[in-house]
Amino acid sequence: MAAATISSSLYDLLGIPATATGREIKAAYRSLARTCHPDVVAVTQRNKSATEFMEIHAAYSTLSDPQKRAIYDRDLFEHQRGRTRRYSSSMGLSVSPPLRSSGYGVRNWESDQCW
């Protein structure tokens, strides 16, 4: 399964249902990583493969963390109820709802200080 550049959800990207367990999420990620990782594909497909792998890894990173997944699920529910917004993550993914729980682009008092 090749990862899509535009996906309706991170669950679709990994090819799993929204009710998937942590074990199912990990299994889907590992399966996709075996086929899309830049180290295992032909040299001519490495650039495309690297992009796909980064998308898959971002999805796994969000869905494998219970707190990030809860935030993502809430945002996905709001999106499906009609509050349509399109977001882009820091890696160029076009996924709705946002991947804001990944930690990139989030500022807080501690990270803004120069120690």
UniProtKB/TrEMBL annotation:
<protein>
    <submittedName>
        <fullName>Chaperone protein dnaJ 11, chloroplastic</fullName>
    </submittedName>
</protein>
<dbReference type="InterPro" id="IPR036869">
    <property type="entry name" value="J_dom_sf"/>
</dbReference>
<dbReference type="InterPro" id="IPR052276">
    <property type="entry name" value="Diphthamide-biosynth_chaperone"/>
</dbReference>
<dbReference type="Pfam" id="PF00226">
    <property type="entry name" value="DnaJ"/>
</dbReference>
<dbReference type="InterPro" id="IPR001623">
    <property type="entry name" value="DnaJ_domain"/>
</dbReference>
<feature type="domain" description="J">
    <location>
        <begin position="9"/>
        <end position="76"/>
    </location>
</feature>
<dbReference type="InterPro" id="IPR018253">
    <property type="entry name" value="DnaJ_domain_CS"/>
</dbReference>
